[in-house]
Structures are given as C-alpha cells and as structure tokens.
Protein: HAD-IA family hydrolase
Organism: Thiopseudomonas alkaliphila
Amino acid sequence: MHKPPLYLSFDLDDTLWPIAPTMVHAEQVLVDWLVQHAPRLGADFAQLRVPLRAKIIEQNPDWHFQVSRVRRLMIQQALQQAGYSLKQAEVLSQQAFAAYLQARQQVTFFHDTLSTLQQLAKRYPLLALTNGNADIQQVGLSDYFQHALNAEQIGVGKPDPQAYQRLLAVADITPAQLVHIGDNPQDDILGAQQMGIRTVWFNPTQVPWQHAIEPTYQIQRLAQLLDIF
C-alpha cells in the first residue's frame, strides 16, 4: 500500500528562535517611538503595559490569542490616559504598533535553524502553527514553508483542537500524516497528541517531562531532526 506523504509542522517562538531578546528589542522600539512621536505618554507606557493588557483580557476573554488586536488597544488606551483624544490615539496607536510589529519580526535564529529547515524542506512539506504574530515572510523563512497559520487568523490558539484542525484542513492531510515540533508541552505536545498527531518536543534545557503521555520524540537541538526524518 502506498504510504501517505509526511508533513512537518513547526511552532515558531522559542522553537526556531528565542523569543525573549526579540520581545525586549520590540518593546524598546515601541517606547522609543512613543517618546519621539507621543511624548505625553513616552516611556510611561512601559509601566502601563502589563496592567492594561490584563484589563483588556479580563474584559474580552475571547481576545487572549488576538495578540495584535490587544497590543493596538493597549497602546490606544495608554495614549488616551495620557491626554490624547480618541482620534489622535487611534492614529498614533496604529503607527506605534506598526513600528513595534516590524521590530518583533527581527528575530535571531538558533544556530542550526536555517540549515535544518533547508535540509528538511527538500524532503518534506513544512507547515507553521503559532500562537504569536511572527510573520514567516518577514522573518525570512517563506521559502521553506508551504503554509503558516497563527492563532489570530484561526480565532483560537494551541492547544485548542480547532487550531490543529485548521492546519490539517489547509494542508489537506490527516493527523497520521503530520508530525508537530514545538517547545511548549501543553500547547505543542499535548495539544497535537489529542488530535492523534505525532510530536517532537524541542527541549534544549532538558527539563523533565511532567505528563503521562510522552512525546513521540524529544530533541535538544533542531539539527537532531535530521537524524529522525
């Protein structure tokens, strides 16, 4: 019997690059932009960011995975609190968010990310599924991936089964044809497993696995995927 083709799907943040330095840089770019273009708010946004986000999510729990929408509203509300009119805040928040989002795409890959993707893309169709707002094209990986989905597009995020169902539908494949690779035990591993999808847990710090059902594979370096697939 002909064996169906295998597809590999990847999480992005903390799987293909470390997210912490990217976010530190993006937050600083945003504050610098506000200091220059919205001085009544300026650097004060850094202290307002966390409580504003918490309030927005509390008022709109369905927005948990709509990270771009929440970020824009955070900036807008902070601008209004600083004394800008609603119209001014709407315009400035769009511009500030654009500066932030551009910086958020400036990632530094793990040392073996590109070489591993280059080799795997020659062997298998590659997919991406993320809860964040990284853009495959803007980070420079569009040549390797056939499809990329994020939680904001889908309306739900991992580990919700609908996120994986959408990815399967877009690629027109069955769970048996997919292996998902990611760093988050809950979102990436347990989320995929509940759909009958095989998994690779990217665990560079070698923390112990805490759940009953083991991932199909476990790796500490992305290049180890080349020994598995």
